[in-house]
Write a structure and sequence with these properties.
With about 425 residues, the chain is α/β, with parallel strands linked by helices. About 45% of the residues lie in helices and about 15% in strands. The strands form three sheets. Strands 7-6-8-9-10-13-14 form a seven-stranded mixed β-sheet, sandwiched between helices. β13 (about 405-410) and β14 (about 415-420) form a beta hairpin. The longest helix has 25 residues, at about 1-25. It is elongated and about 70 Å long. It starts with a helix and ends with a strand.
């Protein structure tokens, strides 16, 4: 009896230990923020899947096993506003479909990674992701300069990537089957931005500034080519360094030449500073950029100078329809986060991957598919209706339904102008 009592006590301790282990990572989403080179001592491979807002977070794993879908975006640093919007949109989509996968015997999990807008960290994360056999897809990246080198690793691991935001032409021109995007490319966005500036804003002279990144310079190059084609006089084409706080050198050139428009190829941290400092120097012309200026933080950085800033975006405004407004209200209520333009594109990218996983499961007789089966299924996506955009991938992985849109800031927010023609 005494021996049996000891065994009972040990069993109880073991059960309690297992229960505590299940709680330790079951509802944590913070691990993804330190997945790459952060202050955490936990290596990236130990990052716990995010289950915030999901049902059944402490339930036992489903019979079919775990399937993880990763996100790769900047979740720390000065680009985290857009990076978190993509991650949150993707997470919202996944959580809404957890029960659907559970009914088939699978535990679908989000596996968020912080690429910190750094190519080296993006590649390191990608290596970790392809080494984890439960990871079946990646929603990301925000930055083309991170996506392009990371995609080399995804190709090695046959891990499908669907980007909500990458616009660099090079991304889908390198022949990688794993690479996909639901948004338009720079060679669509750049020319339409330039044509809008000439035909609608009536500009005759322009000065282009870019941030020397694959995205910023790539977009600037496309705008420059279209301006030259349409007879808009180029008064300058200069690069700046990301992270600097004083752009007087280039802006002194701008004010001396006084172009009708400054076009900036880059992101909102630098764009906000540029327009603020340009206005302080007395520049009164148009200030325009691409989707890199599309963030609520742009208003915080630029202050009153943000008013009148025009930007193109490869992401449209989901709130333009009644159905979209309803979705946006539910999104904000559920996630307790602001709606950014790329929130719905993160949502739609995740659903494209989840749809591919489901199709692969069905084709595999209800069993857990291989990554290559999921890749093939996603690559064949045709007329998939997302919350905002319809998706059909061509052979390169580009969405044949992608569009470009125009927005304009007032002092409080950006306003949708319409589709760029």
């Amino acid at each position: 009896m005494k021996k049996r009592s000891h065994i009972s006590i040990l069993s109880a301790v073991l059960v309690a230990s297992v229960a505590l282990t299940g709680c330790a990572g079951g509802n944590s989403s913070a691990g993804g923020n330190n997945a790459s080179g952060g202050s955490s001592s936990t290596p990236p491979a130990q990052t716990q899947p995010s289950t915030s807002g999901s049902s059944g977070g402490t339930a036992a794993p489903a019979n079919g096993g775990v399937i993880k879908i990763a996100t790769q975006t900047p979740l720390s640093g000065n680009q985290s506003s857009l990076g978190d919007a993509i991650k949150t949109g993707a997470e919202y989509a996944l959580n809404k479909r957890k029960e659907e996968f559970k009914a088939l015997g699978f535990d679908i999990q989000l596996f968020p990674q912080d690429d910190q807008a750094d190519p080296k960290i993006g590649v390191s994360n990608a290596e970790m992701l392809i080494s984890d056999p439960d990871v079946y897809g990646v929603v990301g990246h925000l930055n083309s300069g991170v996506a392009i080198p990371s995609s080399v690793k995804y190709e090695e691991g046959k891990l499908v990537m669907v980007s909500p935001a990458n616009t660099a032409v090079k991304l889908t021109e390198e022949g990688k089957k794993t690479v996909h995007r639901i948004c338009a490319r720079d060679d669509a966005q750049g020319p339409k931005a330039a044509m809008y500036a000439k035909n609608t804003l009536g500009v005759k002279t322009a000065f282009i500034i870019h941030d020397k990144t694959a995205y910023g310079q790539g977009l600037g190059d496309q705008v420059k080519m279209q301006f030259e084609k349409d007879g808009v006089q180029m008064l300058g084409y200069e690069g700046i360094t990301q992270g600097e706080k004083d752009y007087s050198a280039v802006l002194n050139q701008v004010t001396a030449k006084n172009p009708d428009i400054i076009f900036f190829g880059g992101l909102y941290p630098e764009g906000g500073i540029l327009v603020k400092q340009a206005r302080e120097k007395g520049y009164k012309g148009y200030f325009m950029g691409g989707d890199g200026l599309d963030s609520s933080d742009m208003i915080k950085i630029a202050g009153p100078a943000v008013e009148g800033v025009v930007f193109t975006s490869v992401a449209g405004d989901v709130t333009q329809t009644e159905e979209g407004k309803k979705w946006a209200d539910e999104y904000k209520k559920t996630t307790n986060k602001p709606l950014e333009t790329y929130s719905v594109y993160g949502y739609d990218s995740m659903n494209v991957i989840l749809n591919g996983v489901l199709e692969a499961i069905k084709a595999n007789g209800g069993n857990k598919p291989t990554r290559e089966q999921v890749l093939d299924s996603v690559h064949k996506t045709k007329d998939f209706q997302g919350q905002f955009t319809k998706v059909t991938f061509d052979d390169k992985g580009d969405n044949t339904n992608a569009d470009v849109f125009i927005y304009k800031y007032d002092k409080d927010k950006s306003n949708f102008v319409g589709k760029a023609q």
